[in-house]
Amino acid sequence: MEFHHIGVAYASLEKAYKECLPFAPQTYESLAPKIFHVASQKVNVCFIPLGTRGTGFFELIEPTGEGSQVANFLRRNIRYYHTGFLTVDLDSTVIELQNMGFKLLEIFPSEPFDHARCAFLVSATGTLFELIEKPDLVQGR
């Protein structure tokens, strides 16, 4: 697995983008954010690279409806949502994590990742993790 992003919930992507922009490379400031609508999750998301090396991202997440899990988090004043990792083989990584006590919540195709298969899992302590299947991932770069 390879770290990809930290998902943070916001009521407004516009405000979130402005708040997180200081942590992105300067060249990113002139770009408009690419916003993805993730219908299955009832959210809009955009990604901002972290630091100058681009080794990870903030995923800014905005609920689009009352049925959104993210809206529930925001109502409870919880902003941290999840940590995302890339994996070569989603199925084997899910099994490995389940054997370590993680609970699989769902597997779904995700629009921001070109409809790649993704999974949400929760740890025994309640921390949410996202796996993104990327078969061409080169490990240990």
Question: How many helices?
Answer: 3
CATH top level assignment: Alpha Beta
Write down the secondary-structure element order: EHEEEHEHEEE
CATH homologous superfamily classification? 2,3-Dihydroxybiphenyl 1,2-Dioxygenase, domain 1
What portion of residues belong to β-strands? 35-45%
Instruction: Tell me about the largest β-sheet.
Output: 8 strands, mixed
* Low-confidence spans: none
The total strand number stands at 8
- Provide the residue-averaged pLDDT: 88
Shape label: globular
Please state the structural category. Answer: alpha+beta
Number of domains: 1
CATH-defined architecture:
Roll
Calculate the terminal CA-CA distance, rounded to whole Å: 11 Å
Helix content: 10-25%
CATH third-tier fold name: 2,3-Dihydroxybiphenyl 1,2-Dioxygenase, domain 1
